[in-house]
Automatic annotation (TrEMBL):
It is a multi-pass membrane protein. The chain crosses the membrane at residues 156-173, 206-228, 240-258, 278-299, 306-326. Keywords: Membrane, Transmembrane, Transmembrane helix. It is found in: Membrane. This is Nucleotide-sugar transporter-domain-containing protein.
């Protein structure tokens, strides 16, 4: 059996859950600014961002998969032939007969990553984050259906409380910052004093996109977990397969909407048109998120992933209190207490949940 890996003495399971929490807090903010900080005519193509995300994630995963195979076969001591045979072995693993299984989550994730851009561009950050919490429930539902995971009614109740609690925290965090959501550039950022660009939002489109993204998130995550845990194939090989199957659906919209300038400027220049610092930051945070998500799914599961991201929202508000002087409001206290209680309730041993609750209630 594989021994549990550690980073700086901390089990990778906890390290990845914490890193994912921080990454999640950063992504929706960076992505939102990248969409609304420039006029629509000068904004980058989300399809290009989705494609770059897959290319980068796939390349990083390939390098890791290759180095792992090379290390296991002691390639460095066997010279060029050693490296070549490692390359051959990793290619054989990537193009294994069951690689097609990854085509399903690959397609779902490409759809989800594109829907996220539609949602983020049409809803204020907090509204997007609140509604996106529905994925906690869709993920649990798909875990029960596909992984045959048993969830007691107390666990379902704690997941519902988690989604409600994190929703309350987010609704109030947008109002307590007193910054209109469409223009809420970070305090002290270059955008704070910059002229505001008009970016027309369509909340109905945003809500439709976020609802669909919740379903693809739950299904794709659980499907990936099922493929990963039902076979011996390496995580990084599975990630390369996922990225490879993501390429056709990611390239299709780029070809479909190709600008006539593509013939003059070439594909790369056209795809990268208007790709500024915010766009690169969005892609980098997404790549990091994809890699950590894969680790979290392997060493924990999709439901624990939901708890990590919910706690991150509570922590990022507390950070804003410390850094930007946000005020702690009664609804923050109610929302975060609900999140903490839900986390604790979910993690009680079976049959002990209600006993534990009555022990802390003053009855
Ligand atoms: O919102 P959610 O947690 O479902 O998002 C998961 C993200 O992680 C998606 O952007 C998806 O593309 C990415 N991912 C990945 N590799 C995996 C699993 C998820 O890049 N193995």
């Amino acid at each position: 059996a594989e021994s549990a890996p550690t980073i700086c003495g901390m089990p990778l399971k906890y390290f990845s859950l914490i890193t994912l929490a921080v990454q999640n807090a950063a992504l929706s903010i960076v992505m939102h600014y990248s969409r609304v900080s420039t006029p629509a005519a000068q904004s980058y193509s989300p399809a290009a961002a989705v494609l770059l995300n897959e290319l980068l994630k796939g390349s990083i995963s390939f390098v890791i998969a290759f180095l792992r195979v090379a290390d296991a076969s002691d390639a460095s001591r066997r010279g060029v032939m050693g490296w070549l045979s490692a390359l051959q072995r990793v290619s054989r693993e990537i193009f294994s007969p069951d690689c097609w299984k990854l085509s399903i989550p690959a397609l779902l994730y490409v759809v989800q990553n594109s829907l996220q851009f539609v949602a983020v561009g049409n809803l204020p950050v907090a509204t997007f984050q609140v509604t996106y919490q529905m994925k906690i429930l869709t993920t649990a539902a798909f875990s029960v259906m596909l992984l045959r995971r048993k969830l007691s009614s107390t666990k379902w109740l704690s997941l519902l409380f988690l989604a409600i609690g994190v929703g309350i925290v987010q609704i109030q965090s947008s109002s307590s910052s007193h910054i209109p959501s469409r223009q809420n550039h970070p305090v002290g950022s270059a955008h704070e004093s910059a002229p505001l660009h008009i970016h027309i939002m369509s909340p109905l489109k945003g809500f439709g996109a976020v609802t669909a993204a919740c379903f693809t998130s739950g299904l794709a995550g659980v499907y990936f977990e099922m493929v990963l845990k039902n076979s011996k194939a390496d995580l990084w090989v599975r990630n390369v397969q996922l990225s490879l199957f993501s390429l056709p659906p990611a390239i299709l919209p780029i070809i479909w909407n190709a600008d006539p300038r593509i013939y003059q400027d070439g594909i790369i220049a056209s795809v990268l048109r208007n790709f500024g610092g915010w766009a690169w930051a969005t892609v980098s945070v997404q790549v990091l998120g994809g890699l950590i998500t894969a680790i979290v799914i392997k060493y924990s599961d999709n439901i624990m992933k939901g708890f990590a991201t919910s706690l991150s929202i509570v922590l990022s508000f507390l950070a804003s209190v410390a850094l930007f002087g946000f005020r702690i409001t009664p609804s923050f206290v109610i929302g975060s207490t609900t999140v903490l209680a839900a986390t604790w309730m979910y993690n009680q041993p079976p049959g002990q949940e209600l006993v534990a609750i009555t022990n802390v209630l003053p009855v």
